[in-house]
Design brief:
42% of the residues lie in helices and 20% in strands. With 280 residues, it is of the alpha+beta class.
Amino acid sequence: MSRPRISRGRLEELCTKLSERDLDILTSLATSRFLTSNQMRRMHFADHATNTAAIRSSNRTLTRLAALELVCHLDRRVGGVRAGSASNVWSLSEIGGRLLHHSAGFDQLPKRLRTHEPTTTFLEHTLAVAEVCVRLTEAARGGDFAILELQREPDCWRAYSGPEGGVATLKPDLSLVTACGDFEDHWFLEIDRDTEPPSRIVRACMRYEAYRQTSTEQKRLGVFPAVLWIVPHPKRAVVLKTRLSTTPGLSRSLFEVVAIDELPSLVRAGFGSREIDHES
């Protein structure tokens, strides 16, 4: 597909039509890749008096940005047609990406934005990661804690010397730094959708143990970040907690598993500030 032609003058003209919130929406799509209408509303329209007003305002804004060819929604919906406009999945258009780079110097976009529908697995995981970010934002907005840093992949990845030589890469879904009271907490976040066997979760945890052995994070932070697995429901949390706590070679104080509805409470409690022991 050919690259859309748009002049610098046209970009500048489009910029004059955008509010600060419009640019924030484009930035969110650039960093999250995909967001549902519901997620967009919760992130950027929480200042409205009622939920109905927020829905109407967000729908108008997204329709306007789509008419300007800055955003587009997938043919696919999340939750089916009955979910209405809230089920639309939005992404940044290539023109939207060029405008964002032109107006705000945003340089974290891929060289070429997607011009085709993503696979179901990729989309569902991406939206699950975005949902965690939205819930953390909502909790921080409510004063539960402050978000000092929230990095998505690949910015949150860590390269290190593997146990058999060569360079290995740890690939968390997110890295998070929060503050609550006098404590600053560091986290690696992994988003689980209950689609993988526990054995694959264990192997991922072993990679965290291998990275911890390098002491890279400890030298920089003084502690190793907590590794938090975020799962869709309590039953899955019980399964993973049991498996991780009974696997030899895993430090029990390094890993925690939490259902997504309980995420704000756990982050507020500051599990990530704990000193990590070396028992195995």
